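ARCHIVE RECORD
Type: protein–small molecule complex
Small molecule: dihydroflavine-adenine dinucleotide
Source of inputs: curated submission
Record status: active
Notes field left blank by submitter.
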Amino acid sequence: MNPLRSLILAAAGNDVLRRAVAATPGTRGVVERFVAGETIADAVTTAARLIDDGLHVTLDYLGEYTGDARQTEQTVRTYLALLDRLHEEGLAPRAEVSVKLSAVGQSLDEKLALDNARRICEAAERCGTTVTLDMEDHHTTDSTLRVLAELRRTWPWVGAVLQSYLRRTEADAAALAVADSRVRLCKGAYAAPETIAHPSPHEVDLSYVRCANLLLGGGGYPMFATHDPRLIAVLGERARWYGRKRGGYEYQMLFGVRPDEQRRLAAGGETVRIYVPFGEQWYGYLVRRLAERPANLTFFLRALASRS
Ligand code: FDA
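STRUCTURE (tokenized, with ligand):
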């Protein structure tokens, strides 16, 4: 992995830096570009606006690696309240939720995370929408896939996420390319050693296309999460080659990233879903976005300079 990217990703877990960045003037503008706001009301307003523009959304309540049972309970309750609001506002047909298992207890006890995810899935079903389990650091991949398999026994629509930077992912894609299986394919946003992850961006892209072929050739519903113009062009061509009609797969992009492209694809008849994060704990999420686009680094360096 690029050393600058590794360094920025390491900053995601640094508490001193987190506090410095939060206190830096000008932070708000950068945060607002990528995060819908701090409250459920903010998230619902943003979702409604995107849906009005012909897009779909998946909402993520920010927070991860919670080692505190009270905090996990608060996260679950926020998801339940959010789902109710989406239902009340008539947004549920186009708005689902994305859940990080580490935010609902995975690091405390896998069973707790499973039980909490079940509560969120029950509410989503009642409200007429779906849930996708985000994929996090590679240490959690097996656990997340175990929880997914358990949830899918009751709710086959629970979405999985696979990361093409991991060497294991082709095998996982083949296993998940089955009827009714919703699978988001992304490159992967976390640091991982070369023993388990492809070292170069080119290899990650090749792996992405191989996994996309497996998903398009299988019986499930592929969800292609990428902003990469070259990949988007290849995916459109591959979808046609596999005889997939529009609506038989979807593109996904992050809130605030390439908004014009999001609307261009939707105007051309593609299903496009925007990942909309909200909540107070935006720091780890923001750092991963900066690692993808070091052009935004000035903001970060200003925070560091203000400490010295
Ligand atoms: P990459 O970052 O490699 O960029 C390729 C090209 O895309 C660039 O050269 C540029 O042309 C264009 N581009 C990228 N960012 C741009 C920007 N800000 N402005 C303009 N052009 C830009 N990860 C994970 O590990 N677990 C998960 O669960 C998820 N979930 C998820 C959901 C959704 C909807 C998305 C879009 C992404 C994720 N990710 C994720 C993150 C994902 O793994 C990855 O880190 C980012 O999407 C960045 O990779 P890209 O494929 O976009 O291309």
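CURATOR ANNOTATION: The beta strands are 56-61, 95-99, 131-133, 160-163, 182-186, 221-225, 250-254, 272-278.
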